[in-house]
Recover the amino acids of this structure.
DNA sequence: TTGATTGCAAATGCTTTGCAGCCGC
DNA sequence: GCGGCTGCAAAGCATTTGCAATCAA
């Protein structure tokens, strides 16, 4: 089962430095320490293009030669979430949380129930939802979580109907 | 922690009959049996106005004198979901699923992070999301899950800011 | 040095499953 | 009576937590 379709994967080495610097700055700015596990999780999140289970992430990290404990990955991700560095969503019917970098632009997820593929969809939709709520209902949105499941174009063309 | 604000709770006895008939019809139409646990879960879903944990549901059922096993409640809810009688959502940060009747109209949830209140919001928003996806992306939406968390009007007025 | 952070293992919480007995049809 | 359903207990996952050792600052 495949889990993403992102393509803008810049040359790894080039930006690896930048990413690391970004992490260290954020950590220090908030009074947290810069540690190997945190660097490893951060790097893995960048390498894998989104939507990984904590377990998958841990495997990925191990494959890169770092070996971080599951519990630490959980703790690190919680921290990253607090610092707005990462986000979790529950996609599809699975009950395991899936993690990705916290992109500054708001987007939502398109989960294909046939091939399991997860697509990002960036657009004004989420922004307009916020607006709508704030104006019409006095509700101050903090987080907008939109997950759409169905059949992606490819699977519609392949299958019948 | 309170969990809902629905008001259209019709006179219980009046519609209880109707609801029961509805359940039995749907069950039989799909080749399933009409049993006490199923009636009990169905009734509890109607009594409680939405968003109950399986555990809460089971307690509610027990309070009504029916005593159904947790496992059976799970199984029953799974069945109801298949038959489009009930829906589950994961609201807020808790990891327990919350169940409600499958209202025919599409709606989404507004979760207040301060008071824990969950509001339904019925509108054209979900429909327009569907449309947008189908036209613009060839994606055939099956289920649209939209959960917005933030601060409700009341909590904004009470608190500062 | 000192306290934040980690690894390990055990615990927790929600949900699922195996199976023998029960009951709707 | 047959086979679907239920209750009970045990198992399964994802996630959390306690605690001693470790390491960044």
């Amino acid at each position: 089962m495949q889990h993403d379709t992102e393509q803008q994967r810049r040359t790894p080495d080039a930006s690896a430095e930048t990413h690391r610097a970004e992490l260290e700055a954020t950590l220090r700015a908030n009074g947290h320490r810069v540690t190997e596990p945190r660097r490893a999780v951060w790097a893995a999140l960048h390498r894998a293009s989104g939507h990984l289970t904590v377990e998958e992430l841990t495997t990925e990290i191990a494959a890169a030669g770092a070996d971080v404990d599951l519990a630490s990955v959980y703790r690190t991700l919680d921290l990253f979430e607090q610092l707005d560095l990462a986000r979790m969503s529950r996609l599809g019917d699975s009950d395991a949380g899936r993690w990705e970098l916290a992109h500054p632009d708001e987007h939502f997820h398109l989960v294909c129930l046939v091939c399991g593929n997860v697509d990002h969809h960036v657009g004004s939709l989420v922004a307009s939802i916020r607006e709508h709520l704030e104006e019409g209902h006095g509700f101050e949105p903090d987080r907008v979580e939109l997950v759409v499941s169905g059949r992606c174009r490819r699977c519609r063309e392949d299958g019948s109907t």
In short: The helical segments of chain A are 12-29, 36-47, 54-63, 70-82, 125-137, 153-158.
